[in-house]
Amino acid sequence: MQNYLSLGILTKSDIEDIEGLDVTAKAKADFSDVKDGDWFRNAVDWAVENKITSGYGEGTFSPNTVCNRAMMVSFLGNLDKVITRI
């Protein structure tokens, strides 16, 4: 992920894979484009469970969508709320 950060290019699945956090989720998020076996599956489930992200309204997560600044601020703000609870 560090190489992407230096380029300023991150996808949603990169953001959801924050190193150092235990991203064990109790339940699976229901997205048509997030499958069992995807490398980011656990992180997405955890992020949805902890209200860091909710995906898109049409039942997709769009893991390859490049994050814009607004998305990044939203994710990090929501992540901060979770980290302060830990």
Give your account of this protein's structure.
By secondary structure, the chain is mostly helical. It has one domain (2-85). Helix content is 43%, strand content 0%. The protein has 4 helices and no strands. The chain has helices spanning 2-7, 12-16, 41-49, 69-85. It is globular and about 30 Å long. The two termini are 23 Å apart. Mean pLDDT is 79; it is low at 1-7.
Question: Would you summarize the structure shown here?
Answer:
This protein has 86 residues and is mostly helical. Helix content is 43%, strand content 0%.
Task: Kindly list the characteristics that best describe this protein.
single chain; 86 residues; mainly alpha; 43% helix; disordered N terminus
Radius of gyration: 12 Å
Q: Helices and strands: which structural class?
A: mainly alpha
Mean pLDDT: 79
Shape: globular
Q: Tell me the domain tally.
A: 1
Number of strands: 0
**Helix share, percent:** 40-55%
Strand content: under 5%
Oligomer: single chain
Q: How would a crystallographer describe the biggest sheet?
A: none
What order do the SSEs take from the amino end to the carboxyl end, as H and E? HHHH
Q: Helical segment tally?
A: 4
| N/C terminus separation | 23 Å
User: Which residue ranges are poorly predicted, with pLDDT under 50 across at least 5 consecutive positions?
Assistant: 1-7
